[in-house]
Amino acid sequence: MEKTINMQINMDAGAPVMEPQRQFYYMDLAKNLIKEREKAYGRKLTAHVETFGCQMNARDSEKLRGILDTIGYVQVDTEEADFVIYNTCTVRENANNKVYGRLGTLGNYKKKNPEMMIALCGCMMQEAHVVDRLKKDYRFVNLIFGTHNIFKFAELVVRALTEKQLVVDIWEDTTQIVEDLPIERKYSFKSGVNIMFGCNNFCSYCIVPYVRGRERSREPKDIIREIERLVADGVVEVMLLGQNVNSYGKNLDQPMTFAELLREIEKIDGLERIRFMTSHPKDLSDELIEVMAQSKKICKHMHLPLQSGSSRILKKMNRHYNKEQYLTLVDKLRAAIPDIAITTDIIVGFPGETKEDFLETLDVVRKVRYDSAFTFIYSKRSGTPAAEMEDQVPEEEVKENFDILLKEVQQIAAEKAKALEGAVLPVLVEQVNEHDSTLLTGRLSNNSVVHFSCTADQESGTNSHADESLIGKIVDVKLAECKGFYYLGELCR
Which of 3, 69, 88, 201 sees the fewest Cβ atoms within 10 Å? Predict the structure, then answer.
């Protein structure tokens, strides 16, 4: 768990008004309620957090786990737990349907354990029609809250434990950012760090601004302080998170650019790698490219969503750049950082997309030569302008174009990866390989995955488990063989 300020709260004075003191008060209340349940059950209570969606959600789930750990729950990997929390995503309609399907299974678990608690939070809960359906069809749910008040989790848990009825706490928007709450990290050596919340872009296909709210940036001193604590706790790599990190700092009382923030973060002793996502092309500045080129810590990787190569479709998407401007950005990146890996997102079949529009996308793919790309077939997202657009593209045509794009992207990515075969490069070791205990798995600066052999008694030639002491360290690995989307390597002693 990350270290937090040790808050001494006077429980006799009632709940504080200020945050985060108020939440520490409710954590103490929750601890006592959990202890009472433990006595009644004759055992420790268990909890499980299931995360759907993006890395912002993953970081939010670490906050939920930190609070659960603080109030006394033992976290488990099964949904047959005393408390299950779904942190939901709503970027696509099928994400909602997936949650509804899983809730059916949870309902069966609750029949076996009537005292089981079920909570739903995240982006999906920000939609009024979702909450209405949950109230009507899933009455066994105990707690519903959204994206803006996740910091109130301890307070909401106390309400759910004591009120014995469905607790719903949804905020439409907020400017509030609460610091210094407990967080339970997945990895001891790397961590996500939120630098901002919300989005102001309103791409016509995207629901995120409606459920995550307007952009609000954290104060740089709070970000620096958090990263310094992380480094003191063993973290060597941070991922700076925001819906559009390139617009960081615009709403601060004393505005600061994202590039200026990166310069300050790079000064932190002990921090070895800096990543960030996601970058919006319309806000990618020359200053940021210069900082990346000069940096010894910022990873040589830029995720730069294209979405479409057609300037006409980009305008319909409300992306605020055209094909030529995007290609100019890529040229600037490659000129300043020749070995940078560029990845992207592409949507096929946006309303009104013609064959000529699709060929424009294919042209960008061939010119940029992405190291990898996330490709999506457009699907209507109710509540967005694109869902109401005419000229929805026939499914058969979309599928044909998607298959062409996927083949092109994969072929180029394989060629780009093959070019590094035989190179010796630094790898951050993340874990023992899930399928072969004699291998370690890690990532290059460009985010590519490497599996490599390194056993504690490697020199003796005997078959043994991988040397786990290297996890969390950056080591040199020879990329012996490219397997398309990953490498097999050898540790350089």
Answer: 3
Residues 6+ apart with CB under 8 A from 402: 348, 349, 375, 377
Q: What is the DSSP string of 13-68?
A: G---SSTTHHHHHHHHHHHHHHHHHHHHHTS--EEEEEE-SSHHHHHHHHHHHHHH
pLDDT tens-place string over residues 287-308:
999 999 999 999 999 999 999 9
Identify the band that residue 2 occupies on the pLDDT scale cut at 50, 70 and 90. low
- For residue 458 the two structure tokens come to 């490697």
pLDDT digits (tens, 9 = 90+) for 454-475: 765 555 455 577 899 999 999 9
The pair phi, psi for residue 115, each rounded to 5°, is -85, 0
**Given CA atoms 451, 457, 460, 465 in this order, what sign does their dihedral have?**
negative
Sign of the Cα pseudo-torsion (463, 466, 469, 473, in order): positive
Amino acid type, 448: S
Flag whether pLDDT at 27 surpasses 70: yes
The residue length of the chain stands at 493
In degrees and rounded to multiples of 5, residue 403 shows phi and psi of -65, -40
DSSP designation for 147:
S
Looking up tokens 């960030």 gives 276
Entry pTM: 0.90
DSSP 164-228: -S-EEE--S-------------S-SSEEEEE-EE------TT--HHHHH-S-EEPPHHHHHHHHH
Query: Radius of gyration (Cα) for the chain, nearest Å?
Result: 24
Say how far apart CA 291 and CA 158 lie, in whole Å: 46
Band of residue 1 on the pLDDT scale cut at 50, 70, 90:
very low
Q: 83-88 and 74-75: which strand pairing?
A: unpaired
Q: What is the mean pLDDT of residues 147-153?
A: 94
